[in-house]
Structures are given as structure tokens and as C-alpha cells.
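Lab notebook, bench 4. Still working through the backlog of constructs that have no structural model yet. Next entry is a single chain of 228 residues. Request: give me the C-alpha cells for it.
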Amino acid sequence: TRMIVHESIGSSGGIRAVRDGAINVGLISRPLSEEERRAGLVAFPYARVAVVVAANQSVPDSCTTRERLVHLFGRRKARWIDGKRVVMLQRERGDSSFTTFANLVPGLAEQNEASYREERWRVLYSDRAMQEALLSTEGAVGIFDLGAIVVQRLPLKVLCVNGVVPSLWAVRTGRYPFWKDLSFVTYGPPSRLVEEFLRYVRTDEARALTESSGQLALPLAPAKNGGR
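Model written out:
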């Protein structure tokens, strides 16, 4: 069997493509809504990935805090420790990575919405666009996916948050709370071909591939004491 993996069209795009019959199985990075479940969509979680504050290599800071992150989204004239201007990169409304942070950082959603209204920052509409902007823009920072950085070996700086460095170990042990689950999605029960693929995803070989890509394979294996 030959599989074709298309360029990402986002969670909502993947769901539409599955419902339209354009693809056999979609990939999403957010939970299905109640309406989507009632419509017959079925999700199969397979990985958990850290959502991180990623920056251009020119950024001198190595860490940030939750409060500082709210400040960065809200201030046009925010500065890094070397005095250079912060360039915040935003994603579109509803982006799953930003929502991960907004759910745990008080005031972040409000500052983000104010930034949309006042057009403070550039808004990117895909992971690829965010990736390219982070790589090419001096002083840039944005919310991104650690798995995408690891698997593509992107030369981006990942900031620790409140003293915790994002890692598989930190997510597995609960030290790093900013993560999201990735799922495959089908329209109704999976076909025989898709079920064969999902069985492979659960094998030790596939789980090892997942973890080598900077993601935790679901269901989670117990964390080893002291392991990192």
C-alpha cells in the first residue's frame, strides 16, 4: 500500500477534507468539537507534543515567564535584554498552539485579542509561515511546536518558561504544562486500510519513531525516575 502525505492544511482543513472524502484520514492538533463528533468524526490520539516559545537565533534571552509573555504580546516597544526590539509573531484566532498557552496564562488571550484589533503584530496563518518568519526575522518570537523544531532540526531558540526547559521528560512528568495532543481523524469508523495504518501506529516501532520526532507516543509510558 502506498501512502501520500500532503502539506498541512491545519486541523479544520483536515477535518473538512475528511468529511468531503478528499482524504482517508486527517491529522488534527486540537480536540474535536461536540458538533464535529455528532457529525460522525472520530479522533484517534497518537502523540503529545510540547508547545513552546520559539525565537530567532538573534534573541539573547534564554527564558521567559508567563507574566512576561503577556507583556510581550501587549507592548509594541518591548525589548530583549540587549535592548533590541521584540517582534512578536501571532497566529490566527483559534490556533491550537496559542490556545494551549492562553488556557494556562491569565491575561494572555485578552492581550492577544487587543493585538488583533490594534494590528500590533504580523499574523501568520500556517505552521510553515510561522516557521519561516521565526527563521528570517531578527528579534522574532512566537508560539510554536517543539516536534516541528526537532524533526526538521530548525535553528530556532526555545525559551524556558518559568525556569522549566521544554522537553519530553518535562511534559511526561508534568513539570512543563504547555502541550497538546495530536490525533488522526476519520469520518465514521476507519476503513480497513486506515485501521491497518492505525494498528501500525500503536506498534513499538512506530512509537519509537514518534518519540525520536520530539513527541510523546500515546498512551504515555511511565516516566523513568530521573530520566530526561
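Notes after review: The chain has a mean pLDDT of 93. The beta strands are 26-28, 41-55, 63-64, 87-91, 122-124, 140-145, 157-161, 179-187, 216-217. Flag for follow-up if needed.
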